[in-house]
Give the backbone structure.
Amino acid sequence: MGKNVTIKYCAPCQYEKQALDLAEELKIQFGERLTEVVLEPTQSVGNFEVSMDGELVYSKKKTGRLPHPGEVEQLMMTRIFN
């Protein structure tokens, strides 16, 4: 059964491109293991969160920065295969 991923991002901060790029990378990396990747714009300033099946995987609020390339994929890999 595939995983559902949600990427919530701050629309006023113009994080849409980062969210789109991440969604594409996740689809390439995990392919059929993902049922869907949903992009959810928010008005919450500075928000950039990635959840998998409702469980928070990455939060800009906690790290103070946008994810580095490959970082979210690595975090998801440990959850998918453990």
